[in-house]
Design goal:
Length: about 325
């Protein structure tokens, strides 16, 4: 029998009008942005907004929601906030337009961080303990995922951020399993089967190279075309993207090209969504990182440096382990 997690109702914001108190239970919360328009929007939502150039005046243990609309993460930025509690929201890595930035901030406020961390703990426990492959099925999806004996994953297991900690919002909202290296595509997992995706995201890494930047620009245009024809149907064999179609159009070659053809369509990331309470609020036409964890899973191709990182988000399906299985959180 398929395990169908209970998505639950939309998280109810606390007295302050948002759920960020789950992350920063004590002290004032500062929204710091590198963009004046986004700061004005945050202030209009009743948040304490500061321009990035004034962040050096914050106390060492300040609670900071860092919204980067105009720049990517750098060593200088990390140094500036090295003693603070930081929730990083890398908007420029996806779509820096003001409409998407405002949408992203709204979803950051609505995210149920406590529930997301419960899901992260569930996946960490279940994947380490279950003896059989993980199967996703339902709503047109039928995928079987087999894992290596030793895995590493990026996920935040407790909603609180301590002093000196810098945590990306993605670490709350997804349990991300990635290939060990560019030369070991199958060292973490293998995936076979079909999936139906509702959304598609394009991202760049802070270490993007010139050839990657050109591919990412083409990928952004390709994403718009594919999403407009959604749902998106994917077929994978031995972890390799065998086909991508939407609205009867085959986009397989185009996706492999913009994610760097050197990877030959190998799946580099299996992301397990842990922010599914947001699903009723998601607009799949927008290229926002907060869309990524709102679906049950996403499949990532490319690494954002030599080509686009593209995530195909499967919004709703059930899951089970072929042999046994712990209960999903409710």
């Amino acid at each position: 029998m398929s395990v169908t997690p209970e998505i639950g109702s939309q998280a109810e914001p606390g007295a302050a009008g948002h759920n960020l108190r789950q992350v920063f239970p004590d002290g004032e919360i500062f929204v710091v942005s590198d963009d004046a328009e986004l700061n004005r929007y945050a202030a209009g939502l009743g948040m304490r907004a500061l321009p990035l150039e004034d962040a050096s005046g914050l106390p060492d243990d300040a609670n900071v929601v860092l919204l980067l609309r105009a720049r990517l993460v750098s060593r200088d930025l990390r140094r500036l906030f090295r003693r603070m509690r930081v929730l990083l929201v890398p908007i420029a890595s996806f779509d820096p337009s003001l409409a998407v930035a405002e949408y992203t901030l709204r979803l950051v406020r609505a995210t149920d961080y406590t529930a997301a961390c419960e899901w992260n703990r569930y996946w960490a426990r279940s994947i380490s303990e279950q003896p059989g492959p993980l199967v996703f099925e339902g709503n047109g999806t039928d995928l079987t995922c087999s894992f290596a004996d030793r895995l590493s994953a990026d996920a935040w297991l407790d909603p609180h951020i301590g002093p000196g900690k810098w945590v990306s919002v993605a670490s709350f909202c997804e349990f991300s399993i990635t290939a060990p290296s560019s030369s070991d595509w199958r060292g973490a997992f293998d995936i076979d089967g079909t999936a139906v995706a509702s959304g598609l995201l394009v991202a760049r890494d802070a270490r993007v190279r010139p050839e990657g930047d050109e591919r990412i620009r083409r990928a952004a245009r390709l994403r718009e075309e594919i999403v407009a024809r959604a749902p998106i149907e994917l077929r994978l064999a031995d972890g390799v993207l065998a086909s991508v179609t939407a609205g009867g159009v085959d986009y397989t070659g185009a996706v492999i090209d913009v994610t760097n053809p050197g990877y030959a369509g190998h799946t580099l990331e299996l992301g397990l969504g842990t922010n599914m309470n947001l699903l009723p609020l998601v607009d799949w036409e927008l290229n926002s990182q907060l869309n990524e964890g709102a679906g049950t899973l996403h499949l990532g191709f490319g690494e954002g440096m030599t080509g686009a990182h593209m995530d195909f988000v499967v919004a709703e399906c059930g899951h089970r382990f072929q042999e046994g299985g712990a209960g999903a959180p409710r």
